[in-house]
Amino acid sequence: MSPIEVGGYSICVLLVLIYMGMPIAVAMVSVSFAGVALIRNEVIATRMIGAVANDALREYLFAVVPLFVLMGLLVTVSGVGKDTFDVFERLLKRVTAGLGIATVFANAVFASITGISIASATVFSRVAVPEMTRHGYTKKFATGVVAGSSVLGMLIPPSLLMIIYAVLAEESVGRMFLAGVGPGLLLSVLFCATIIILAKTRKDFVFETSDDNAGYVDIGGFAMLRKSVPIVSLMLLVLGGLYGGYFNPTEAGAAGAFGALVIALLRRSLSGKSFWSLLVETGQITVSVLFLIMAATFFSRMLALSGVPRELADFFLSGPVGPYGFLILYLVLIIALGCIIDSISIMLILLPISLPIASAAGFDLIWFGVLTVVAVEMGLLTPPFGLSVYTIKSAMNDPDLRVGEIFRGAIPFVFAMLVALVIIAIFPSIATWLARL
Predict the structure, then answer these.
(1) Number of structural domains in the chain
(2) Structural domain includes residue 437
(3) Which of 160, 142, 146 shows the shortest CA–CA distance to 104?
């Protein structure tokens, strides 16, 4: 077989193995090893996998992964998410569907220090949904708002997906973080607009009753200040230090993890046993992410050796499809794969193939990365996979709450994300202006 045929068959075999249930990283390493062995020989394949493991994981930058993961877990157990929601609930209680908007804002702020969508979904399903249902909102709408706004965790910096994209695209992590600010704010505004439109036009979708007779817990100015201080302090420490030039991304992660640890200790929400559990969970997440990155790097080198990306670039860019036809097909494919595969796996499978094409097309890779993350995050809300939806179902532990009900509540926010995707595609400066300063 020619190298091109080996590359093509490797992609097909990889998809079949994933569909059969083989772990993504194992499938990628196996297929890549076999592909290199067929193109060259087993000795070169063995040497290459060793070189990839060394080159892909020895970078100082990768220390940012466990640090941001640990910070997110510490923030989750310290009760900062509930305090954030309480503050926005107090500020927006007189606004139409104010609790829905408060959930979006609280999720946006919480996302700025966690970087993991599932953490947001877990926290706010327990905090916001019971409060919204108490005030007469439907469970469908309440869970849909939490599911929809949880995706902000992977877009507003710091973001685990942004880190993975930056590594694979060889872009600056700091610039990728900056690129997520504008789209994150845009998506927050679109989510709020969606909530207001639904409250005006589909009251039966939003409210169980026409009037909200439940009382609000009135917290005073001092209590609001006390609840705001921890999360504002962490935002200033992490984002202020990062964007002010005091920290690089790894140092910002270390500072954030230390700050989150101090907050958890001061609130007495962390015992020795729970801290050890968090460290173990951090290690498990970190190892799985780094192994996936190593596997994707090996897969990328195998494809480069086969010449498949070059042939695909020639096909898309010199034929009738063109650069923007390729972009549309790429985004549609991501959204379709989001129905059956998790976010990180989609990026690790598609980016080694698509990045060379995007680069040859002259696309700004930072803008391309933001589009990728937004499209990938739609998969958290679409059936049958919908990881955020299943996370909410699990966290709620409500036998009367059906998964289909959560999916229906999240559909309006999927359309809002689609609108955001189109706007960012038409106006790239939304993603690039801050990153290019």
Answers:
(1) 1
(2) no
(3) 146
